[in-house]
């Protein structure tokens, strides 16, 4: 069986690395000839996204998936007319549009920050009056790593937010959530409807980019873990999603508030390659290929640390006990995710110590 992946970044690369042991082979659709997935399969695509390049990609595989949600739903519909695509177009339409995502949370009674759709400066002023400040303004599509956002903290900021983002209307305005920490849950649903969830991760961001994740989230209450599980199950079932899905959440200390979804394997699930019985990448590929799912149980406490902007010394990282290095084959650039490190330990206390040892070796500063 051949799997076609929209996007040729590190997520596609790690999907292929997980699928090769079952003798699956891969093709990727990406405009960049030196993308991280290129060494692992056949590459299709051109800068203009021509119909011919899409047809060639369509002919190259038996089943399709994506590693990146900012692709046109029309493309996925076109593929779906000929061959299976997982996750389906409904999952994509929700996750790539923050307004659809908020409507889904409301419909499923999943707590999320109160929100308004913004189509004009007047609507923005009204949202500030109704939801208060700080008010978080987000572009509806295309945002990532905190890009496409503006936090209104005073009435003077309203005009600035409008100058910055007004051209991208409609926008989403949402109340600021006073959270204690950020969590995520990664889960997988198979073609037969079976769902398996990884334990929630505690995610620490630095300058808008995920710095590291610790799994299971330390000291998470039974109630919060159950909530996270129930929310992602409700979403997976409602969308009849097939494959991995991720839900980012705020832990307020008195319950979880949903933030956003990703219809795909997620940076906060990379720990699972070494830290779980079956990784998120393997489970995603199993689901897409119609195979039985593997266990999402963690083997021991694990952390994922992103390598951002500059590469560390390989030997210095690998000299740290129970550390694994994943490099994506990218060139250095400020703010760019170049790779990640997984570290495991018998206990969370030892794990936190190992994270500090790794932080001291990384050229980029980590938010500890
Ligand atoms: N409503 C909010 N209240 C407080 N912080 C927020 C809110 N929305 C987003 N943030 C902060 O901004 C970060 C990025 O926002 P997010 O919606 O996850 O977009 P992205 O697609 O860039 O990850 C979040 O991880 C969180 O730290
Ligand atoms: Mg996010």
Report on the architecture of this protein:
With about 375 residues, the chain is an alpha+beta fold. The chain folds into three domains: about 1-85, Rossmann fold; about 115-175, ATP-grasp fold, A domain (Dna Ligase, domain 1, 2-Layer Sandwich), CATH 3.30.1490; about 180-360, D-amino Acid Aminotransferase, Chain A, domain 1 (2-Layer Sandwich), CATH 3.30.470. It contains twelve helices and 17 strands. It has helices at about 10-20, 50-60, 75-80, 90-95, 100-105, 120-130, 155-165, 220-240, 270-275, 280-290, 315-320, 350-360, and strands spanning about 1-5, 25-30, 40-45, 65, 115-120, 135-140, 150, 170-175, 180-190, 195, 200-205, 210-215, 245-250, 255-260, 300-310, 325, 335-345. Strands 9, 10, 11, 12, 13, 14, 15, 16 and 17 form a nine-stranded antiparallel sheet that branches. The protein has a four-stranded parallel sheet with strand order 3-2-1-4, with helices on both faces. It has a four-stranded antiparallel sheet with strand order 5-8-6-7, sandwiched between helices. Helix 1 links the parallel strand 1 (about 1-5) and strand 2. Helix 1 (about 10-20) crosses helix 10 (about 280-290). The model has no long low-confidence stretch (mean pLDDT about 95). Adenosine-5'-diphosphate binds near residues 143, 174, 177 and 205. Magnesium ion binds near residues 248 and 260.
Please describe the topology of this protein.
Blueprint lengths: L1 E5 L3 H10 L5 E5 L12 E3 L6 H9 L3 E4 L6 H8 L8 H7 L2 H10 L7 E4 L2 H11 L3 E5 L9 E4 L3 H10 L5 E5 L5 E9 L5 E3 L3 E6 L2 E7 L6 H18 L3 E9 L4 E7 L9 H4 L4 H9 L13 E7 L5 H5 L4 E5 L9 E8 L3 H14 L7
Parallel strand pairs: 1-2, 1-4, 2-3
Antiparallel strand pairs: 5-8, 6-7, 6-8, 9-10, 9-11, 9-13, 11-12, 12-15, 13-14, 15-17, 16-17
The structure holds adenosine-5'-diphosphate and magnesium ion.
């Amino acid at each position: 069986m051949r799997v076609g992946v929209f996007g040729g970044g590190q997520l596609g690369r790690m999907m292929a690395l997980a699928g090769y042991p079952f003798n699956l082979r891969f093709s990727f659709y990406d405009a960049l000839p030196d993308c991280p997935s290129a060494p692992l399969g056949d590459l299709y695509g051109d800068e203009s996204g021509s119909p011919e390049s899409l047809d060639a990609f369509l002919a190259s595989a038996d089943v399709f998936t994506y590693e990146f949600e900012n692709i046109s739903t029309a493309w996925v519909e076109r593929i779906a007319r000929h061959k299976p695509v997982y996750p389906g177009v409904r999952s994509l339409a929700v996750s790539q549009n923050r307004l659809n995502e908020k409507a889904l949370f409301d419909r499923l009674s999943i707590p999320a920050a109160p929100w308004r759709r913004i189509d004009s400066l007047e609507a923005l002023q009204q949202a500030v009056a109704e939801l208060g400040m700080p008010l978080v303004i987000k572009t509806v599509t295309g945002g990532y790593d905190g890009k496409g956002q503006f936090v209104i903290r005073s009435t003077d900021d309203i005009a600035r937010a409008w100058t910055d983002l007004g051209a991208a209307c409609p926008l989403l305005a949402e109340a600021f959530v006073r959270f204690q920490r950020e969590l995520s849950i990664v889960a997988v649903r198979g073609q037969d409807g079976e769902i398996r969830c990884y334990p929630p991760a505690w995610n620490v961001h630095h300058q808008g980019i995920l710095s590291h994740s610790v799994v299971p989230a330390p000291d998470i209450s039974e109630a919060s873990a159950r909530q996270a599980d129930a929310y992602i199950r409700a979403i997976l079932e409602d969308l009849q999603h097939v494959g991995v899905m991720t839900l980012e959440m705020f832990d307020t200390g008195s319950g979880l508030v949903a933030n956003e979804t990703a219809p795909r394997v997620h940076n906060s699930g990379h720990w699972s390659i070494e830290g779980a019985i079956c990784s998120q990448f393997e489970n995603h590929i199993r689901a897409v290929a119609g195979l039985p799912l593997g266990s999402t149980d963690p083997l021991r406490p694990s952390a994922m640390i992103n390598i951002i902007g500059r590469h560390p010394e390989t030997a210095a990282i690998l000299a740290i006990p129970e550390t694994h290095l994943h490099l994506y084959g990218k060139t250095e650039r400020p703010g760019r995710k170049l790779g990640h490190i997984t570290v495991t330990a018998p206990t969370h206390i030892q794990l936190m110590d190992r994270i500090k040892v790794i932080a001291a070796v990384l050229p980029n500063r980590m938010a500890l």
